[in-house]
Specification:
With 117 residues, the chain is mainly alpha-helical. Helix content is 62%, strand content 3%. The chain has four helices and two strands. It has a two-stranded antiparallel sheet. The longest helix is centred in the middle third of the chain and has 22 residues. The two termini are 23 Å apart.
Length: 117
């Protein structure tokens, strides 16, 4: 299965990072609120990625770390909403890059060949 011609884990990671960053752009949320929303986004998208890839562990770990980073304000760390989004996007991008070689689609596609080849 491919999404926009790419592997689902990569596309979902980019969408998750983008949504996390969008939450923090001047919409009047407190640090705690932004962190909670970003953590939920990270957790949901990590669960989707884990369901679509094998082995599940690297994708699940990536989501856990991203959600934990997003929850920093909830643990009373003084972090601005913009920093929450930026930090979450960076962590997601790095972890997707690192774990990319360790996961593959849950149902790998067989290569298609043109007729007559």
């Amino acid at each position: 299965m491919r999404i926009f011609g790419r592997e689902p884990a990569v596309v979902i990671g980019i969408i998750s990072a983008g949504l996390s960053l969008a939450v923090t752009f001047g919409i009047g949320l407190s640090s705690e609120q932004a962190g909670a929303i970003v953590a939920v986004i990270s957790a949901v998208f990590a669960a989707i990625t884990a369901a679509m890839t094998r082995p599940i562990t690297p994708s699940a770990f990536t989501g856990l770390v991203a959600a934990a980073v997003a929850l920093l304000p909830a643990f009373h760390f003084d972090v601005a909403p913009e920093t929450v989004g930026s930090l979450n996007a960076l962590v997601l991008a790095l972890l997707v890059f690192i774990t990319r070689g360790q996961v593959s689609p849950a149902s790998p596609q067989t290569p298609t060949h043109p007729a007559g080849v």
